[in-house]
Amino acid sequence: MPIRFLAAMLLAAVSLAFTLPASAEMTPAQRAEVEEILRGYLLKNPEVILEALEVLEARNQAAQEDRQQATLALHREELERDAASPVLGNPRGDVTIVEFFDYQCGYCKQASVSLRELLEKDSGVRLVMKEFPILGPASLIGARAALAAKRQEGYEELHWALMAHRGQLSEESILSLAAEVGLDVKRLRADMEDPAIQEKLRANYRLAEALQIRGTPAFVIGDQLLPGAVPLEHLEAAVATVRSRAQR
Question: pTM of this prediction?
Fold first, then answer.
């Protein structure tokens, strides 16, 4: 294999340096000779460079995944068991999915269709909602309204209504949707101003930053962090992986 040949040549170069007398160093002529050997080999076998880069990329990816899993483990309790985070699906489900989302994110709306289908098909899924409003003032208003709706036991209804809404959101449209799903809008307005809701959103921002989540949607399932509008079959596969590991 080219990588092995390159490694052997590099080892030979290092060995040459160490076989010199302790009082001596590699002379300029010796160094030039070694460099010329390596240069000639690489010119004749340029694919070695690509293979080496692929190996390096794979190692970096593995290291990144290890760091990510360690970070997820560190924040597991806040991700899955924070009492202030709304939960859809089965509150006592055997598999937890955590979603970071924005009500103005088109990809989140797309993913919500898959999520809703998953919840209907799989009664063992517990879906933890992390409002992550990053797309402007209307996103923030929507997140505050949804969290306030939780106090009227109306979070799920307003959540799906906001996800189903097409077009730009505004305070007026958000409150109109709240009224349509049966919420007390006057009470909702008052609850939206509660500092506890503001602090919950700040906590979500901090958690997203710790996990290096930069966009929406983003899903945490077991030890996986899945960015983007994950298709239904990928969600199902991730859930199945968590279950299989739990049974070992």
Answer: 0.76
